[in-house]
Amino acid sequence: MTSTSTSDSAAERFTERLSETTLLRFATAGSVDDGKSTLVGRLLHDSKSVLTDQLEAVEHASRNRGQETPDLALLTDGLRAEREQGITIDVAYRYFATPRRRFILADTPGHVQYTRNMVTGASTAELAVVLVDARNGVVEQTRRHAAVAALLRVPHVVLAVNKMDLVAYAEPVFAAIAEEFTAYAASLGVPEITTIPISALAGDNVVEPSAHMDWYGGPTVLEYLETVPVSHDLADCPARFPVQYVIRPQSAEHPDYRGYAGQIASGVLRVGDPVTVLPSGRTSTIEGIDALGVGVGAGTTVDAAWAPQSVTVRLADDIDISRGDLIAPTAQLPATTQEVEATVCHVADQPLTVGRRVLLKHTTRTVKAIVKDIPSRLTLDDLSQHPAPGQLVANDIGRVRVRTAEPIALDSYADSRHTGSFLLIDPADGTTLSAGMAGDAFAAAATARDGATTGATTDDEGWDF
Predict the structure, then answer these.
(1) Are strands 241-242 and 274-278 parallel, antiparallel or unpaired?
(2) Do the bridges between strand 22-30 and strand 101-107 make them parallel or antiparallel, or are there none, so unpaired?
(3) What distance lies between CA 290 and its chain's CA centroid?
(4) How many CB atoms lie within 10 A of CB 442?
(5) Distance from first CA to last CA of the chain, Å, rounded?
(6) Residue 374 and residue 362: Cα distance in Å, rounded?
(7) Pick from 4, 141, 223, 365: CA 20 to 30 A from residue 296's CA?
(8) Cβ distance 161 to 134 under 8 Å?
(9) Are strands 127-133 and 22-30 parallel, antiparallel or unpaired?
(10) Cβ-contact 131, 162 below 8 angstroms
């Protein structure tokens, strides 16, 4: 009994300590054979985040391949095709923690044909680690990864110059690569760039400082990941509350209860705040906020709540509100529009063409839409725009103009990665076609738009917008 009690107490202390640490979502990217999977494996191994049976399986697989030391890349390359080819194909998510911080890692592929996979992994990341081979320097795929990180407005980018052991740990080699990458990433509008020389295979500057690079005085990769400010600035943005579910128990205990449940996408909601419900435009005041929002009576009533909390909001007036509506401060409303201009990454194998009927999913709202125009396709090699491509195929990134059947309350992606993003979906089978980011593509190229829109149109299938 004493052993069980001690164990439970230790588990409780660990859980309590873990809940006090911050969470960092980050993604890794790198060209083929730059050692990205080895870096992730080294990070997990040296931070003691690998279970014994996982390590034994890697050691066994490495011996079968004739390797004397464990191939740490196998810790992340989980698919059989990945192990056989020695490449990363799918996005592999890994969860680990140190006493200072919890992490969700998205290990993304390096091949150009898997650009859509990197977009998926980096779309929610607060930091991106881009690897380069010290022998090759900044290559075409490195620039692509930097461009994708900039496009997705990832706040922090780390350049990890790998395989420094193969260039005799030479400082000039690292300095030249760091200078070239920093200049390029800064031109794209990446707000913060950090460069770290490493050897993932040998473990230099991954978790422990390197004894071979005394000329480098910066942090190791793990040290930087543990200490980089996690800008949970969602609370600093205007409040956005997409309604997910309307709670009306109509029970003897709660005959008049009407609550609107969902997750706060950004900002802070306070009791007494004047709010507007979009797209209807009806106004009211927040009368109460029930934390957690798991049924009537669950949790506690609070005076304020902030992103990303899940709550139930009660309003002073009875308004017709349903799933997909957005509650926002009357003084800080997003634009409501049926004309959406955005940058999209096309993720489906079937092409996206002008005139295509789609469903547009924005937060909890899904509406019919038509692709009115595809003005350009982005060439990630040199960031040039290929005009009027006619269609976007898998892994293409391009500009689109979409008209929706109903108004949507859409922020610019530059202002909010949560309420400025959307999905285009095939109405026939629910397949995701494209991931969209409203507004301008890169921060460095952001300019004022004239806001011109076209009138309502009817397509051949009768979708009259």
Answers:
(1) unpaired
(2) parallel
(3) 28
(4) 18
(5) 69
(6) 20
(7) 365
(8) yes
(9) parallel
(10) yes
Closest CA to 14 of 103, 97, 123, 121: 97
Q: What is the three-class DSSP state of 339? A: strand
d(CA 37, CA 110): 10
What is the rounded CA–CA span in Å between residue 462 and residue 465? 9
* Cβ partners under 8 Å of residue 309, min gap 6: 263, 264, 291
Q: Please report where in the chains the tokens 């409501």 appear, as a residue.
A: 336
Per the CB < 8 A criterion, the answer to whether 160 and 146 are in contact is no
Rounded to whole angstroms, the Cα distance separating 432 from 360 reads 10
Distance (Å, whole) CA 40 – CA 100: 18
Rounded Cα–Cα distance for residues 401 and 186 (Å): 28
**pTM, entire model:** 0.79
Dihedral angle over CA of 101, 99, 58, 200, nearest 10:
70
Instruction: Please write the tens of the pLDDT for every residue from 365-422.
Output: 999 999 999 999 988 777 788 999 999 998 889 999 999 999 999 999 988 889 999 9
Q: Any idea what DSSP says for residue 100? A: S
Provide the β-strand partners of residue 30: 131
* pLDDT tens track for 156-174: 999 999 999 999 999 999 9
Please compute the mean of the pLDDT values over residues 410-439 and round it to a whole number.
93
Radius of gyration of the chain (CA): 25
Nearest to 102 by CA among 200, 14, 203, 6: 14
Residue 184 CA to residue 202 CA, distance in Å, equals 29
Cα–Cα dist 241/266, whole Å: 7
CA angle (336 as vertex; 334, 339 as ends), nearest 5:
125
Residue 102's identity, in one-letter code, is: R
Instruction: Give, to the nearest 10 degrees, the angle between helix 140-151 and helix 171-187.
Output: 40
